[in-house]
Amino acid sequence: MKKLTFLSLCLIGMTILHSCKDTEVTNDDPTLKGFIYTTTNGESTNQVLKLDRYSDGSVANEVAYSTKSLGGANTAAGGDAKGDFDSQNAIQIIGDYLLAVNAGGNEITTFEINRANGALTFKNNVSSGGKRPVSIAYTQKSGSNTEYWVVVGNQWDNPNVQKDGADIERYPNDAWFNTDLSAADASDAERNIALFSFNSTDGTLSWETVLDNYPRINGGPTCVAFSDDGSKLAVTTWGIAHFGTALTSLDEQSPSRVYAYDFNGGAITNARFFEEEGIAGSIGFNWAKGSNSILHVSNFNLLPTLRNNSLTVLEVAAGAVTKSQNFNTAGVDDIDEACWTLLNDAGDKLHVASFGANTITRFNVNNDGSIANLDLVVSRAGVSPPGDTKDMYITPDGEFFYVLGAYQTFSINRFDNATLEYQTQDIYETTMSQSGNAGENNFLGIAGFDL
User: CA distances (Å), 260 to each of 231, 274, 398, in order?
Assistant: First the structure.
């Protein structure tokens, strides 16, 4: 949502692009391996897009499924940002069901999955318990193989400041910023994390309670996630970002927070958080593999003196959350806008996607979850305007790595997972007519499974 200059795309005659529906599958084609899903999150009805994935990494046979609820895109909002907002974990697959957020409809959609062909059957919509749901986390209930706790992060909105000097713009407006943003406000009820129960035998998602609310000054949730053992829950928040300037100002920016809670039996206790002046826009994060004490967090909006904090490693102790490591992403001390994280299944490779630079930065991870060193940095090819790259996905067989062009190209971009060598770009057929129109869709989430 951050870059203020967007490139106009012209897809006509560009042979480097493929349509996700154009591929004809014959008996000589590679074998079907699995399925990949994302949501359009457009300006009207939200849709889940399904792709078949083949053994050579190619994708085909796109199908769109209506959520019967609304996406959250709004190109009339936020000036040059055209309504962009960010999150991670907007789609989750639990057993034979897919759960997806509807950021504009304030609902969670449940679909039943046909595991043989990836087809989705709409089940129902449930209120998210707040405004603008953006992230879903789940953990199995103690003593049950079929019951889960589900937590939904409701973001509410993403107030921000753009540019500086005589050109400065504040959203939603100057008057909003002239209030005491740390004081209690009616909007607190909509900016929250909400708890549900989920039954994986019949796909029933049931309301439980609101677990916590968040003050406007530090923003609403961008990502929620449980530790692998389910004993801890963490939440990143948006803060108030100041972007579209080389000199991010503390007078305009408010820090994001990273909260950690102890979690047991559907209850949270011992809330603590990390924040640092000059760091805002904490978007994606993940727990280290098998850890309930190490977090990897991406941060997009940084003071010039803190640009080596695009990735921060946080330690969750009994009484505090503290920073233990910090790193540049994209290999440079620049405004690359790191926003999403993805840890591989082995837990030894951490990936950070940068929205502005359209890069993937991969780090080697130690056994204790700390970062060993920067491994490599790769860029997308194909059509790749600044401000497009978002969520990432590694196939369960470990062969391929995909990243969404979520904000302008409406594409899925494939890399070899071992080397991160770029391979190809496919434009989604459902949204192809809108490619190049920044913000008309704002894809949220990516998930999948293999046969």
Answer: 11, 9, 30
Mind listing the pLDDT tens digit for each residue in 63-118? Answer: 999 999 999 999 999 999 999 999 999 999 999 999 999 999 999 999 999 999 99
Q: What region, left, alpha or beta, does residue 182 occupy, with left being phi > 0 and alpha being psi -120 to 50 degrees?
A: alpha
Least confident among 27-36, 125-134, 334-343, 431-440: 27-36
Tokens of 388: 């497009």
- The answer as to CATH 2.130.10.10 being correct for domain 17-450 is yes
- The helix (run of H) or strand (run of E) holding residue 176 is helix 174-177
d(CA 280, CA 277): 8
**CA nearest to 252, candidates 149, 159, 325:** 159
List of long-range contacts for 366-375, beta carbons under 8 Å, 24+ apart = 368/288, 368/291, 368/294, 369/288, 369/289, 369/291, 369/293, 369/294, 369/296, 369/313, 370/288, 370/294, 370/313, 370/324, 370/325, 371/296, 371/311, 371/313, 371/325, 371/327, 374/327, 374/331, 375/349
Residue range 142-174, pLDDT digits in tens: 999 999 999 999 999 999 999 999 999 999 999
Query: Distance between CA 43 and CA 162 in Å, rounded?
Result: 23
- 246 burial (CB, 10 Å; 0-12 / 13-18 / 19+) is exposed
* DSSP code at position 175: H
Tokens at residue 121, please? 């059957």
Whose tokens are 């280290």? That residue is 288
Closest listed residue to residue 99, CA positions, set 42, 34, 46: 46
- Identify the CA nearest to 10 among candidates 409, 308, 329: 409
CA distances from 29 to 70, 205, 451 (A): 37, 39, 17
Nearest one of 430, 429, 387 to 408, comparing CA atoms: 387
Report pTM.
0.95
Structure tokens at 334: 């620049």
Q: For the chain, what is the radius of gyration of the CA atoms?
A: 20
The whole-number pLDDT of residue 320 equals: 98
